[in-house]
Amino acid sequence: MHLAKNRLRTILIGVMLGGITLAAFWPVIHNDFIIYDDAAYVTENPQVLAGLTWRQAGLAFRTSCAGNWHPLTVLSHMLDVQLFGLNPAGHHLTSLLLHAANAVLLFLVLRRATQPSNPQLPTSRLESRPPPALDPFWLCAMVAGLFALHPLRVESVAWVAERKDVLSAFFFLLTLWAYVRNAEGQTPESTTRAPLYATRFYVLALVFFALALMSKAMVVTLPFILLLLDYWPLRRLQFSSPCWLSTLRRLLLEKLPFFALTALFTGVAFLLLRQAGATQELPGVGWGHRLARIFVGYEQYLAKTIWPVDLALPYPRLAEVSLGLALAGAAAVISLSFIAIWHGRRRLYAPVGWFWFLGMLIPVIGLVGVGAQTIADRYTYLPSIGLSIVAAWGLGEIAGRPRLRLPMIGASVLALAALLLATRHQLRYWQNSEALFRHALAVTDVNPLAHSLLASVLAEAGELEKAETHCREARRLMPNCAETEILYARVLARRNKFEEAIAVLSQLLRHSSVAPEAHFNLGAIFGEQGAASQAMNSYRQALALKPDFPEAYFGLAALFTQQGDTAAAIEEYYQGLRRQPDAPEALNNLAWIRAASANAAFRNGEEAVRLASRACELSGRQNPVMLGTLAAAYAEAGRFDDAVATAQEACNIALAKGQGDLAKKNQALLELYQSRRPYHESLEPFPASPSHL
């Protein structure tokens, strides 16, 4: 009867946790994609846009994405595209469901560890001394609630590109569950004397850990967390025992497969990040500065956990750290560590929770520079669990005093409610890119990346004057940043300030590391000016410096097309596609030539269908231009029924997107295909380029 009551109570709390988490984050499904990394991971990632197929799944395991190897995360994005296309609501819903599942899983894992599973153990393994006044059941629920509802979780849940956070956490928590199940029934004595063998739960823990690593490499610290759990709550390691050293050796031996996976994935992750240039430090950043930055980072994470205000994406990277700030951070970290150790004899949760927090942040705390930020809210996703454990068990102990019991329970409920409201408030800034980056500029100082990102948003919206202003500010705050300089040149070119744009890029040519990109953008600007020979020269210089530069080949192909040199254009398109096979626009343009060229020698219906089908597949069949090209390819191949159906599909999508002129042109082509005739460029009144669609 008691067991059934506990089970019912566990189910009810789990349902409540999941429901409250969904309610807190529900507005996220109305948010858009953002320009920062969502394009690289989803909206402009050809590998993901093709949807979930066996071929694409294989590629996910063989290639990296934005310098990271996390094939399971890529597969999850593919599945979303397969199910929802590029409707952001579906992608956000998947992340939200995973976060809600993580909240419930955390509760269940802690609950499993709190209940005594071995009658030989005198007390619950998760109880500390003195024991908390509240039932550990409610403390587990409190930990899960603090984790789920904290505003620092918003970045991981609301940012589609950070699917890797919630997915890796899902498998991380499953690893802990399997590990707890494996440890059930073991006393400290049995841990010392029993032979080492792999139970099914031990094997499951290894499998789940590998899956977590294939979702995000930051979970490499999990073996360290398992050792903490051995101390508390599992009580497999007790330093008061005379044979504690033998037990420790046994537990370390047990972790060897986990450490092996950690070493393997750490090496792979670092090499890929280094190849992608994501581990480059700021000039002049030495180990002394890194150490200072580590202490400041810990202090900032702790402060934002306790008082979550002025949260932003991105935070500015600390180029300099004052001595006072570094000393304050070091004093906070060292003193709190000593306090946790001192109280650890009677309050076992204190050192476990604190060192969980410190240890899990090590991969991103600043030993190696990753990305353009010093700190990020998303990095707290799993480390914050340690602080939640300390907070919940500490409050439970305070509630042991009869006069404080009800006030502490009330304060806990109010704290969770306040976190929920703060989370809902923070979600408002994630509605779209402009709101997000304007908020970042409002709550941070000296943030050149936020200025640059906002400039990109404004440029895309056609607000070129405002975009130029933010580019200038980004350049002032961080001179000689190649990405900002290239963006600035593009904005100037769109404002017809070609001479200024050329001057900016010419200055960049002095930096050999970005010279190919500078030449490429010069080619694009010369092309816009109609200076074809200069544009070709710039593209060729870019290729001379960087032969594996598909965009430069595509630029040359476009120029040859404009000049009527179709044979040369075809050759350049194929050269580029050999290096980047899944480039939708290049596939589409080459397919158009193969389907509708005025010269029959260049037409090849079956090849056009192959190229155009791939382009449509990569765009999720949501681009009416590419669907129109596919229809023309079908017609050239003599598949007129398919041509009619595809042209009708292109018309419908163009109308749905409010592109009336495009729908009319596709309708005219549809009527041509209904008469069993293909479209060739020599047949007027249709224009002689794929821009007709």
Describe this structure in words.
The chain has helices at residues 2-25, 38-43, 46-49, 54-62, 71-84, 88-114, 136-149, 154-158, 163-183, 188-193, 200-213, 222-231, 244-275, 287-306, 323-343, 349-360, 384-398, 402-427, 433-443, 448-460, 464-477, 482-494, 498-508, 515-529, 532-545, 550-562, 566-579, 584-596, 605-618, 624-636, 640-656, 660-674. It has 693 residues and is mainly alpha-helical.
Share of helix, binned: 55-70%
> Structural class, please?
mainly alpha
Percent range for β-strand residues:
under 5%
Mean pLDDT: 88
Low-confidence stretches: 117-130, 683-693
Rg computed from alpha carbons, rounded to a whole number of angstroms: 29 Å
Give the overall shape. elongated
Number of E-state strands = 0
Q: How widely separated are the two ends?
A: 70 Å
Which terms would index this structure?
mainly alpha; 68% helix; 693 residues; 32 helices
Provide a short characterization of the protein structure.
The chain is mainly alpha-helical and 693 residues long. It has 32 helices and no strands.
Give the SSE layout:
Blueprint: H1 2-25, H2 38-43, H3 46-49, H4 54-62, H5 71-84, H6 88-114, H7 136-149, H8 154-158, H9 163-183, H10 188-193, H11 200-213, H12 222-231, H13 244-275, H14 287-306, H15 323-343, H16 349-360, H17 384-398, H18 402-427, H19 433-443, H20 448-460, H21 464-477, H22 482-494, H23 498-508, H24 515-529, H25 532-545, H26 550-562, H27 566-579, H28 584-596, H29 605-618, H30 624-636, H31 640-656, H32 660-674
Helix pairs in contact: 1-6, 1-7, 4-5, 5-6, 5-9, 6-7, 6-9, 7-17, 7-18, 9-11, 11-13, 12-13, 12-16, 14-15, 15-16, 16-17, 19-20, 20-21, 21-22, 22-23, 22-24, 23-24, 24-25, 24-26, 25-26, 26-27, 27-28, 28-29, 28-30, 29-30, 30-31, 30-32, 31-32
